[in-house]
# Entry
Amino acid sequence: MSQKEMLYEGKAKILYKGPKPNTIIQYFKDDATAFNNVKKGTIAGKGIINNKVTELIMIRLSQLGIPTHFIERMSDREQLCHSVDIIPLEVIVRNTVAGSMAKTFGIEEGTRLPNPIIEFSLKDDDLGDPLIPENHILALELAQEDELIEIMDMTAKINVFLRGLFAAIGLELIDFKLEFGRLTDGEDGHFIVLADEFSPDNCRLWDYETGEKMDKDRFRRDLGGVEEAYQEVARRLGISLEVEDEE
Ligand code: TMP
# Structure
């Protein structure tokens, strides 16, 4: 890793300059944080699982016509991606009430919503990622109106696909977070793609039969069996966790 130029170190990933112009390498760590960095820990093997789960989902989504930043997985913990200017929004989809929505509105977790909700948070740790309404996004010029429409359209399609994908392996997709970016070599720099990752770190998955949580809530809430839950999600997705090239 040492010869690569580090661009940014986040809570769960490190970004390095890629081998070609306008590419980056995402390196997936085992580090886990919750509640905006207040709770810190590691989940052994998480980086490998999240790299491989993200690979599988990005490939399937691009087959479906959703543009993504993903190019290819390079190793157990690294994937090559197109570089993007991240739109500083966390795009959250809720199919069933859980987490902050349950808390904010005093609704029981597990209450099914009649229709999925798409909401946005400003991606700003110092401000605690506050919920941001669409008119504020436009007024602050975080995204243009046509971009927001495109993001919501892609997000709705992604939700339909992923709910089916997880239902087929006995997991209910409760909610999840996506991030989008503008390709740095896109036409006028305005070509929007799905970026970041999709993994049990940024979604809630409940086992249909047992109701068991199979995602990062096991870490957030000290439920135990965190590694096992991540492994089980990977196993059900048909992902091999045989170590290929751990250093
Ligand atoms: P919330 O219920 O805490 O608002 O989270 C909604 C979904 O978004 C849940 O699947 C976890 C995910 N999420 C992230 O990926 N990153 C974050 O920083 C937060 C707050 C939530």
